[in-house]
Amino acid sequence: MATPDPISSFRSVEASLFGRFGLHPRERVVTLRDPALEARFLDQGEGPPLLHVHGGGACGAFWAPLAAAIRGRRHVMPDRPGFVLTPAVDLRGVNFRQHAVGFLSSFLDALELEAADIVA
């Protein structure tokens, strides 16, 4: 018996979760400068951008219920570095605050957003 592909399995479960809330976000990837990596995110809706930043071991899909409850916004839900489908970065010797600011700044720049409301 073939081993299931974990990425395909995750995407299927994620789609099911969003589907429960009547949402169908687009999966997108952007290239960041700081840290230098390709960050995966989910993009749902139209309107002023609302950037959802997960904590702990969560992922962008964590925000599905809130995205469903707040209409009239563009919900941008990244997977932070090292979570789900965004590669990890080596944080040894790195100032975490600078890393977090660099990630968010680079992410907004990659999307060409001058500003966004943030939910974290």
Q: Would you kindly provide a brief summary of this structure?
A:
The chain has helices at residues 6-20, 64-69, 96-110, and strands at residues 26-33, 36-44, 49-52, 74-78, 117-119. With 120 residues, it is an alpha/beta fold. α2 links the parallel β3 and β4 (74-78).
Class by SSE composition: alpha/beta
Strand segment count: 5
Largest sheet features: 5 strands, mixed
Overall pLDDT level: 93
Q: Which stretches of 5+ consecutive residues score pLDDT under 50? A: none
CA radius of gyration = 15 Å
Number of helices: 3
Main β-sheet, spatial strand arrangement = 1-2-4-3-5
Features:
single chain, 120 residues, alpha/beta, 5-stranded mixed β-sheet, 3 helices, 5 strands
